Amino acid sequence: MSKKILGAVIxxxxxxxxxxxxPAKVKIGFLVKQPEEPWFQSEWKGAEKAAASYGFDVVKxxxxxxxxxxxxIDNLTAQGAKGxxxxxxxxxxxxxxxxxxxxANLKVIAVDDQFLSANGKPMxxxxxxxxxxxxxxxxxxxxxxxxxxxxxxxxxxxxxxVITFDQLDTIRQRTDGAVGALTAAxxxxxxxxxxAQKTQDVPGSFDAATILFTQHPEIKRWLICGGNDTxxxxxxxxxxxxxFAAADVIGVGINGTDCIDELRKSKPTGFxxxxxxxxxxxxxxxxxxxxxxxxxGTMPALDTRTTGIFMTRxxxxxxxxxxx
Length: 324
Ligand code: GLA
What we know:
Layout: H1 3-21, E1 27-32, H2 38-54, E2 57-62, H3 66-78, E3 83-87, H4 94-103, E4 107-111, E5 128-131, H5 133-150, E6 159-164, H6 169-184, E7 192-196, H7 202-215, E8 222-226, H8 229-241, E9 249-255, H9 260-264, E10 271-277, H10 279-296, E11 303-306, E12 308-312, H11 316-322
Parallel strand pairs: 1-2, 1-3, 3-4, 4-5, 5-11, 6-7, 6-8, 8-9, 9-10
Antiparallel strand pairs: 10-12
Helix pairs in contact: 2-10, 5-6, 7-8
The protein binds alpha-D-galactopyranose.
């Protein structure tokens, strides 16, 4: 055998042996209902950060409906994943997700949207991490109330446009929290006007707000709240469409991820601020917990609620810098 061939054979043997010896990296899935949204992209970033520091692989999948969710679980099973974190497209899929995962020996952590059982109650046995929804909603309401005072508006003269999405508990708790804070600040209950978004995105809330603005031509100044940034952004766009000036609108969102371009615009809009919650931190923590669960058997906390901070054009860059 020539030296050259011998060398090649040895190289091949070494490579094969290394491949056989190297333990396969743990695989963890991270499934989200709206992969195009900055909130979920930030969660994925957090998951990747955890993957890099612990040395596992994260499989990112968009699951926009029930069929895609169940297919994604099959996909993870085929790839030999050990578990996954999910923000489900529909909380009522909880029992189906749990059953399928059990069958495939996959561990599950729910993030953002808590699973509901068949009787409509939260599935508290599935580890969950999400926002302290009522408190964060109240913080958004307080942010709006503070600015209402700063502008010297009369609470009894404004209208509150509440973009609701009651089929999702975390969103309902947020909008209820915001309304509670606004009425506590002196806005009469009959000035609080709820309008439901059909879809959880800008067009969905644009349509919901347009209906409300059309029904109430007597209202000249609007306060806007909703379950997340896109809910408030859509309503702010609708207010502009109806001819309201930014100076006559105070909207405060929730998330702090989907409104960064908005808050960086050279001129202020009706979108005054947001309650910024760390999506990056949520992605990191849930992935870290899943890794410890599948590798060391450490059961994750069953219920963790995150908090947020009020972010406006005034502190935007600093807040973003502190959460990277
Ligand atoms: C829900 C919303 C998202 C985000 C998360 C945060 O899933 O749809 O926009 O607010 O909650 O937990």
